Amino acid sequence: MKLKEIYSDKKSKTVISFEVFPPADENKKLLDEINILKQYNPEFTSLTYGAGGKGGKSFELLQQIKALDINVMPHFTCITSSKESITSALIKIEQSGIENILALRGDIPDTEIHKHFDFNYANELVSFIREKTNLSIGVAGYPEGHIESPDLYSDIQNLKKKVSAGADVIFTQLFFDNNKFFNYIDILRNEGINIPVVAGIMPIISEKQIQKMTSMAKITVPAVIKENIEKYKNDSKSLREFGIDYATKQCIELIKHSVAGLHFFTLNKAYSTSKILDNIKGEKWKI
Predict the structure, then answer these.
(1) Containing H/E element for 190?
(2) Percentages (nearest 5) of helix, strand, coil residues in the chain
(3) Cβ contacts of residue 118 below 8 Å, gap of 6+?
(4) Is the pLDDT score of 53 beyond 50?
(5) Is residue 166 situated within a structural domain?
(6) pLDDT tens-digit profile of 98-110?
(7) Beta strands in 5-155 (DSSP E)
(8) The dihedral of CA 106, 109, 114, 116: what is its sign?
(9) Residue 247 sits in which domain range?
(10) Does 19 qualify as catalytic in the annotation?
(11) Which of 24, 46, 266, 287 has the fewest CB within 10 Å, making it most exposed?
């Protein structure tokens, strides 16, 4: 099923989906984790994916996830890819029966060599995919603005280009303050962006995880999270349980505000995400 059908206005419940990434070692452990999450009936699982010759292992994993009878959505980055390599990868994707794709610019390499090929921005990739395929396209959104944007307004102008190029759904970067998300939705609607916006949720599992994410992106960390990270800095189990409780409250509030979907960044582990979903079973989400 395509994204534009999954997030149809006719749906009355919040859609659940997961994100995983190709593991450094064998795929079996990840597939076992995905099988645990499968019981929650996700509409799809997304997989970080590299085009332009970088996605060989990812494509194999895509096939393995699909074999579990799970709708799978690959990520495509374009910053160092040629049109030929993207075209070749898109053909493989469509021939395998996959219907959805998440189109991203990707990180700019540190070296000047191979800094750009045929694509400089995500909207160019969206336009190319729309022209060449029948895939339904998701794009990234940033409730607090992209780290490279001078401000939130500038970032939203870039998002409008992606939407105009043919995006069907926006998937947000993770956030810990729901008010940032609600404010973002209000601004998008006022700017004429009316496609579904899916909330990115990442359960807190460690201080290192938070430090890494906040160094890579504009993400406000509320005082209560900082306090509990300090409180449980030598107690990883308790910190993980705090993360589950915090994300549960986030999700319940988002569902009550009729969020289109919750997209869980699982970090390739089922435990925290499954506990959160167990906690919100009484809420209006699609199970």
Answers:
(1) helix 178-190
(2) 45, 15, 40
(3) 78, 81, 82, 83, 86
(4) no
(5) yes
(6) 999 999 988 776 6
(7) 15-20, 44-47, 72-77, 100-104, 136-141
(8) positive
(9) 3-279
(10) yes
(11) 24
Q: Which long-range contacts (CB under 8 A, 24 or more apart) does 22-25 make?
A: 22/47, 22/48, 22/57, 22/58, 22/61, 23/268
Question: Does 50 map to a domain?
Answer: yes
Structure tokens at 110: 């540190």
**286 assigned to some structural domain:** no
Amino acid at 178: N
Angle (nearest 5°) at CA 131 between 127 and 137 = 60
How many domains is the chain built from?
1
Please name the residues in contact with 202: beta carbons below 8 A apart, sequence gap of 6 or more.
174, 209, 213, 247, 264, 265, 267
Whether pLDDT at 33 is above 80: yes
User: Shortest CA distance to 198 belongs to which of 270, 157, 152, 138?
Assistant: 138
Task: Specify if 20 maps to a domain.
Answer: yes
The CATH number linked to 83 is 3.20.20.220
**CA torsion, ordered 66, 74, 48, 87, to nearest 10 deg:** 130
Reported as a single tens digit per residue, the pLDDT across 250-282 is: 999 999 999 999 999 999 999 999 999 999 987
- Which residue carries 């099923």 as its tokens? 1
Cα–Cα distances in angstroms (integers) from residue 132 to residues 14, 21, 50, 76, in the given order: 31, 26, 18, 14
Radius of gyration of the chain from its Cα atoms, rounded to whole angstroms: 18
For residue 115, the cross-strand partners are none
Residue 9 — very low, low, confident or very high, per pLDDT cuts 50/70/90?
Answer: low
Q: Which of 5, 19, 124, 207 is catalytic?
A: 19
